Amino acid sequence: VHAAIDRTTTATTRLHVDPFIVARVAAVSGLAVVVAASFGPWLRSGERVRSSYELFQVVDRLGFLGDGAMRWLPRLWVCVPLLAAVAVALYVFGHHRIAAAATAVVGGAALLVGLGLQAAPLPAEWGSRLAAAGGAVALLGAAATIVITHPTRGASSR
Amino acid sequence: MTSQRRLASIAAAVFVASGGAFAAGQLDALSDAAGGADTPEAAVDAMFQSLGENDILGVLDQLAPGEREVLRDATVDYVEELTRLGVLSEGLDLEGVPGFEFSSADVTYDVQQANDRVWLVGITGGELTLGANIAELPLGEMLFERLDLESVEAPETITVDLAEAVAADEPPTVAVIEEDGQYYVSTFYTVAELAASEAGFDMPATPVQPAGAASAEEALRGMIDAGLELDVAGLIGLTPPDEMAALYDYGQILVDLADEAIAEEGIDAQLAQLEISIDTLEFEEVPVTGGTKLLPVRIGVSGVTPEGQDFAASVAKVDDTCVEYEFSVSELSDAGGTQEGTVSGSYCAGDIRQVFEGSDVPPEVQQIAERAVAQLGQVGVVATEVDGQWYVSPTRSFSDLLLVALQGLEAGDIETLIDFAEASSGVEVEDVLEGDSEILDDVVTGGVVIETVPPKGT
What is the sign of the dihedral through the CA atoms of A24, A29, A35 and A37? Predict the structure, then answer.
């Protein structure tokens, strides 16, 4: 009986999923989706589809973003892969909270830009929707990483 | 450090380095890229490709910067208004233009430099395929139903051998301009070159010089003064030098032609006998996309006619639909006294109905006319600022005029006007549209059709 109880306890322990790991996996997965989707098709113009980078270059050149703060959007957007890579590196090196903050920035930007494009009078392609979804996952993962304290490391979660 | 940890560190470093390199490259491209192409031929090629893909963003990207800004601003406004009126289909995106086919293959060019920034690209060979199918155009349901467009037979798609066409005539020429090392197709230069060469002129060696004003109002006043003095160079010099660059480069032709006509007709001598001055000129400034619209509020002129009559006229805006006017003339009578005549009053949009009294113009058409007159209060002149100087933009002003006219219409008005036009002329619009394949043939007049493809399903 004792042996059976021990096996059950071991199985329960094995099945227990660390929410801290889930949060980080969600954040990193979301980042990966955002970066991959940013190179996918975002907008269709006739038979031509453009990635987010091609799209921002052309709308910037054509002046569709005006002269206000939106003018900075293409310049900030090209930093998404870099910021995502920095966030992943910070996770690897254990700087979880700073990594989560960087993830939140990338995820939030992807969510806003991806959703914003759906409202535009232009046919948005799957890349923009996938980026928005990835951004949402990354944002949730980042929020969870910040909120959840690691059960074993506690204060070591920087 | 474990080997797993070391591997993760290396991977992270590679990711960061890659992301950094990508961002640097993209930022460099963003700061450098101004659209356009690296050579004049490439600019025309890219334009053909964008047209072939119905890629309106690509078309705009290949256009000369001064021209694409005007087109960009106008396109969005027009699509919105035409969709509201049911002329274009709901949910139309600006990108795809179904029903229009254009493609090119193996196109060859002959490039000639016209001046330090303008190239003329002659199209000397290759194949061009053209097609237009009204039934597939993104028009609104109202037009489809009213004009029975679905029954309009699709025309054949035709392919033209450009080399054979060129052998029979001058090669079609596209003007390309260079800005900051990039080349762009210019519609205005193309039209100007076509008009100049048709009239037997070459591009003048010296362009007209811009002479902008310190404010939008001063620019318009300057243009009115230049008009009264028949100063064509002055008129050109007050148009935006970016958007109207072609007018500046070819403008000397117009200046010389105008001088010649004025001298031949003795217009300057006639004008010398006419004294006219603008006493009052008040505007309301309204910001519009790309500039400032000057709406006239009060205009007063006076002078002396060649016959010695003093005259004065003034018009003042009361509100958006009404104006007050006064016109007076005085002249010396045979008895030595002065005879004066004055006409004054007010005119409102509703007064247009008097014009239709006793006519068989339907009441709904009269209502449309009344709304159109009411829109006159929104008609103005658009001025733009270029490098700190103000200019009057002819294209933006004309575009705004059309937009104001569209804004005065309501859904259903187009249908009413079509009914009225058909009833008045006795011509069915459907019959006109049936001849669209002939129109397509006219477009490629001079071309040698090497292949015709019947419409699908026939």
Answer: negative
DSSP one-letter code for B87 = S
Chain A environment of B68 (Cβ under 8 Å): 62
pTM of the model: 0.72
> Which pair of structure tokens corresponds to residue B378?
């929104």
Instruction: Pick the residue of A48, A75, A80 with the most B CBs within 10 A to test the interface with B by mutation.
Output: A48
Candidates B27, B54, B69; nearest CB to A75: B27
* Three-state SS annotation for chain B: CCHHHHHHHHHHHHHHHHHHHHHHHHHHHHHHCCCCECCHHHHHHHHHHHHHCCCHHHHHHHECHHHHHHHHHHHHHHHHHHHHCCCECCCCCCCCCCCEEEEEEEEEEEEEECCCCEEEEEEEEEEEEEEECHHHCCECHHHHHHHCHHHCCCCCEEEEEHHHHHHHCCCCEEEEEEECCEEEECHHHHHHHHHHHHCCCCCCCCCCCCCCECCHHHHHHHHHHHHHCCCHHHHHHCCCCCCCHHHHHHHHHHHHHHHHHHHHHCHHHHHHCCEEEEEEEEEEEEEECCEEEEEEEEEEEEEECCCCCEEEEEEEECCCCEEEEEEEEEEECCCCCEEEEEEEEEEEHHHHHHHHCCCCCCHHHHHHHHHHHHHHHHCCEEEEEECCEEEECHHHHHHHHHHHHHHCCCCCHHHHHHHHHHHHHCCCHHHHHHCHHHHHHHHCCCCEEEEEECCCCC
Name the residue type at position B225.
Answer: D
What ipTM was estimated for this complex?
Answer: 0.73
Low-confidence ranges of chain B (pLDDT < 70): 1, 30-34, 89-100, 132-140, 144, 147-156, 165-168, 333-336, 429-458
Residues of B whose CB is below 8 A from A28: none
pLDDT at position B447 = 43
